[in-house]
Amino acid sequence: MKKYTSLDALLEALPLKDGMRLSFHHHLRNGDGIINPILTKIDALGYKDIHLSPSAIFPSYTSIETLLKKEKVASITTNYLNGPVANYLALHGSETCLKMQTHGGRARAIIEGENSIDIAFIAAPTVDKTGAASGLYGPSACGSLGYAMEDVAHAKLKIFVTDHFVDAIENPQIHHQHIDYLLILDSIGDARGIVSGTTTITRDPIGVSIARRAAQLIEDLDIIKPGFSFQSGAGGVSLRVTDYIKAYMQRNAIKAKFFSGGITKYHVEMLEMGLVEKLYDVQCFDLEAIKSLKRNATHHAISAHDYANPNNPRRIIKDLDVVILGATEIDLDFNVNVTTDSFNTIIGGSGGHSDTASDAFVSIIVTPLLKARTSVIKTRVNTITTLGKHVDCLVTERGIAINPRRKDLIAQLKNSRLDIVSIDTLMQRATAYTGHPKETTHKGKKIGVVEDRDGTIIDTLHAKE
Amino acid sequence: MKTIVVGSLESSDCLITLQPNENTEINIESTVFAMYGEQIQKVLTDTLKAHNIENIHVLCQDKGALDYTIEARLITAIKRFKEAKDES
Fold first, then answer.
1. DSSP string of A402-459?
2. Burial class (CB in 10 A: 0-12, 13-18, 19+), A45
3. CA A130, A132, A138: angle at the middle one, nearest 5?
4. Does residue A335 carry a pLDDT above 60?
5. Cα A340 from Cα A337, distance rounded (Å)
6. Chain centre distance of CA A268
């Protein structure tokens, strides 16, 4: 391990070259403090044709926009992006530029050499003298480092960047043999941006009504049994579903086997109440989750590979009974879009959406049917993030639709008192309120692709008109 | 003659502003203009006609309100507009 305290000196020592592929993780989210200084310096050194593989791109990662404007970026491969970089690509992207992957697909592509990383810059909240690292301690603690683990294991060169250098870490998340270079900076992040802070249970009456129906659906499907497994993410409606399920578990003295994915204080609370055996945490969404990782032996930080790599037969999500997910658009074939809005603005991406929908026994989309005069159901989604064959149920405030492919679920629900109709009927209900929209789908030039977790290209991304 | 403002800029609502004018003029700013601009224009025109209102400037700042929301907001605005006119 070679140690540096100056970014300039480090970059001088690295075998930088045109056409290199650089990776970063997004665990510091909008508070990340390493991507901008590193890319700004690399830009100043004059390198070009750079391939970027950050696990996600947040609004604060403005140096990427600068590199794009100077035409120094050959490609961007990521799982989620929004903000200025997304807006720039939607206006000026080129056909080869953008590849949107899934969390599991990114792990697969890195491990299998499809996405061969030259240099991984790994923001590491604490590093010790041996070169071992942890996300649990230090001023920029972010908890799980799940999305960095494949970069750590497979990049040709691994640079750890920290602002908290200590003698020894008791239980490191990353062992010392992985590190090539260490860079110690004054700060690697802004704590206020690291925790997303938006993970609260919805109180919006429409959201509550959707959540109640989704919880009832799960109950009617008889999924909440001892040893079941569940993933909800951190959306307000999903967390309300989790809250209803918690009440049901308490009433019926049921203990779950595991909750997976992004972990919040609500999941931690259920772990500490003895309602669930284990948390498999690929990403901490709030401070309570980070604290829990330190104090609860049954709260496990896991890698994206262990979480969702489709070619890992032991991946956690393979055993998921039910996952609750959102949608920006869904179509009559149940294809879901969480990547773009109806005007080709890039607003996010799969993250683990497609991964978990594909693997879970039941995938449930919770969303308002109407959002500001726009029906969430379209004849065809603008961009396919998750293929309809993996999406089982749609729960809205004005009715529930079950994918006709899931005859087993439909049979199970035949005595349900829930308002279950075809997705066509749900769409007609929406149109009765909104009126018929004028067709507006003018697609600009191609700016990228959506890659499913197994590497299949399932859709193309287009520029805004 | 004062300006009448009714509604809000919350999602799924609209803000209607009425002002006396030499003729009838309608301006629409909408988040869903591409899909529903013509329909919003029709609702506003029909509602003005139904209440025999002319020589007015209508500004509709729409955040995806449904037709009956737009109509209700405009009717309330018209009532207040008439009251203000009677007082003056």
1. E-TT-HHHHHHTTT--S-EE-HHHHHHHHHHHH-PPPP-----SEEEEEE-TTS-EEE
2. exposed
3. 110
4. yes
5. 7
6. 19
The mean-pLDDT minimum among A148-152, A181-185, A437-441 falls in: A437-441
Say whether pLDDT at A416 is over 90.
yes
Structure-token pair, residue A236: 């307000």
> Which residues of chain B have a CB within 8 Å of the CB of A370?
12, 66
Considering the domain A205-441 in this protein, what is its CATH number?
3.40.1080.10
- Give which of A373, A375, A440 to mutate to test B binding, by max B Cβ within 10 Å: A373
Q: What is the pLDDT of residues A18-71, one digit of tens each?
A: 999 999 999 999 999 999 999 999 999 999 999 999 999 999 999 999 999 999
Closest residue of chain A to B40, computed from CA coordinates: A435
**CB interface of B with A, residues 16-75, below 8 Å:** 31-32, 34-39, 63-67
Q: Is the pLDDT of residue A441 over 70?
A: no
Q: Provide CATH code, domain A2-194.
A: 3.40.1080.10
Statement: residue A442 has pLDDT above 80: no
Go through the domains of chain B in sequence order and give each one's CATH number.
4-87 (3.30.230.10)
Q: Which residue of B has its CA nearest to A439?
A: B35
DSSP three-state, residue A331:
strand
- Please judge whether A438 and B34 are an interchain contact, meaning their C-beta atoms are less than 8 angstroms apart: yes
Partners of residue B32 in chain A, C-beta under 8 Å:
372-374, 437
Q: How many CB pairs under 8 A join A and B?
A: 38
Q: State the average pLDDT over residues A408-413.
A: 98
Helices marked H in A252-309 — which ranges?
A: 265-272, 287-295, 304-308
Average pLDDT, chain A: 95
Q: Has residue A195 got a pLDDT over 80? A: no
Domain extent listing, chain A: 2-194, 205-441
CA distance A435 to chain B (A): 8
